[in-house]
Specification:
four-stranded antiparallel sheet, 222 residues, binds adenosine-5'-triphosphate, Cell_div_FtsE, cell division, globular, six-stranded mixed sheet, alpha/beta, Rossmann fold
Length: 222
């Protein structure tokens, strides 16, 4: 599903953020990406989402090399990936529903179908009752779930999460991880970057560990 072949990423003036990175994530797999601050976790996720480009090497998603993707196919590629961040920058002058609807509206989906999908996504994250609320009136955990609903509303086969629970307390974090497991159960491929070593070792999923831009450990459960 996702394959890195000898990938290097060099940022101008900053040196190499990723070094000779090779890995493969199977369709439907859920894995954690760990490592110290600056190890290259966000960079790896950005390369999959085509927010950044590799300096060397090849990345394949669904068998297609991202380097060969014509420019007009990039929005389509991005629609297949739900990106979840620590800070979702929700629009405070729009309701929860309108925030979640954005990716579908941008993609030109018919209004009735948008409404149906938005309600389904809000239901999945347990926020249907708050569909008309303004994001500013929600708790941090609720805001994070709105961000997740927005990321999954287009039903992407891949979810990439970058420190998704960084500012949440342990109970709220557990809720978010339970949600990820539900997406995993229905066949979504998930890669979750986190510093939460304790949780990662408790959950029995593959762990990819980066150290100074290199993949130094790759294991099922340790
Ligand atoms: N846009 C950028 N321009 C220049 N350097 C960058 C850029 N993004 C990341 N870097 C550098 O690349 C290296 C890897 O950063 P990255 O954000 O991928 O690490 P990370 O493991 O996600 O860190 P954190 O856990 O702190 O988010 C760091 O040295 C960082 O300073």
């Amino acid at each position: 599903m996702i394959r890195f072949e000898h990938v290097n990423k060099r940022y101008p003036q900053r040196g190499e953020a990723l070094k000779d990175l090779s890995l493969e994530l199977a369709a439907g797999e859920m894995a954690f990406l760990t490592g110290h601050s600056g190890a290259g976790k966000s960079t790896l996720l950005k390369l999959i989402g085509l927010i950044e480009r590799p300096s060397r090497g090849r990345i394949l998603v669904d068998g297609r090399s991202l380097g060969d993707l014509p420019r007009r196919r990039i929005p389509y590629h991005r629609r297949g990936i739900g990106m979840i961040f620590q800070d979702h920058r929700l629009l405070n002058d729009r309701t929860v529903s309108e925030n979640v609807a954005l990716p579908l509206v941008v993609a030109g989906m018919a209004r009735r179908e948008v409404g149906r999908r938005v309600r389904a996504a809000l239901d999945q994250v347990g926020l249907l009752a708050l569909e008309r609320a303004q994001p500013i009136a929600l708790s941090a955990g609720e805001q994070q779930r709105v961000g997740i609903a927005r990321a999954v509303v287009a039903r992407p086969p891949i979810i990439l999460a970058d420190e998704p629970t960084g500012n949440l307390d342990p109970d709220l974090s557990s809720e978010i991880y339970a949600l990820f497991e539900r997406f995993h159960e229905v066949g979504v491929t998930l890669l979750i970057a986190t510093h939460d070593q304790e949780r990662v070792s408790r959950m029995a999923y593959r762990i990819l560990r980066l150290h100074q831009g290199r993949l130094v450990a790759d294991s099922g459960n340790w």
